[in-house]
UniProtKB/TrEMBL annotation:
Listed SUPFAM superfamilies: Winged helix' DNA-binding domain
Annotated HTH marR-type domain residues: 5-135
Xref: InterPro entries: HTH_MarR-typ, MarR/SlyA-like, WH-like_DNA-bd_sf, WH_DNA-bd_sf
One Gene Ontology term of the molecular function aspect: DNA-binding transcription factor activity
Native species: Actinospica acidiphila
A Pfam family annotated for this UniProt entry: MarR_2
Name this protein carries in UniProt: MarR family transcriptional regulator
Coiled-coil region(s): none
Length: 144
């Protein structure tokens, strides 16, 4: 019986939502809303708001609001881009790095709690499958 891609996608979305819900209290204690956390976590990889919007599939106007909030909270700062003085790039503050790392630790702990329900062999297979779907051949083909 073929597996329906839409059903797999829905299960994946539900898992992510359950994990995020379980971490809401920790995010709130850190002073972060869920989408602010995603923006904060993306800043180092994508230091420009437009890049963040593209990476997270968010409207640019929404990213602008989240960036403004994160700047106000002291988690990120705007810096002049030395390569193009007309542009500002975003950088994490020490407080932002701490908040990001604590939030990621909470998410990892909750995800690990759920991963404990499956065998280590299934976890290796899940990593291989996800890496293959993301075209990450180094991870997809490497045995653990």
């Amino acid at each position: 019986m073929p597996v329906d891609g839409a059903q797999l996608w829905t299960l994946n979305q539900r898992l992510l939502a359950v994990v995020m819900d379980a971490c809401t209290e920790e995010l709130t204690e850190l002073g972060l809303e869920t989408k602010e956390f995603f923006v904060l976590a993306e800043v180092e990889a994508s230091p420009y708001p437009a890049e963040i919007a593209t990476a997270l599939l968010l409207p640019k106007a929404s990213v602008t609001v989240y960036v403004r909030n994160l700047v106000t909270k002291g988690f990120i700062r705007r810096e002049i881009d030395e390569a193009d003085l007309r542009r500002h790039r975003l950088a994490l503050t020490d407080e932002g790095k701490t908040a990001r790392d604590r939030a990621l630790a909470a998410l990892a702990a909750e995800y690990d709690r759920r991963l404990a329900r499956v065998s280590s062999q299934d976890r290796v297979e899940l990593q291989r499958i996800l890496a293959a779907m993301l075209d990450l051949p180094g991870i997809a083909s490497s045995p653990s």
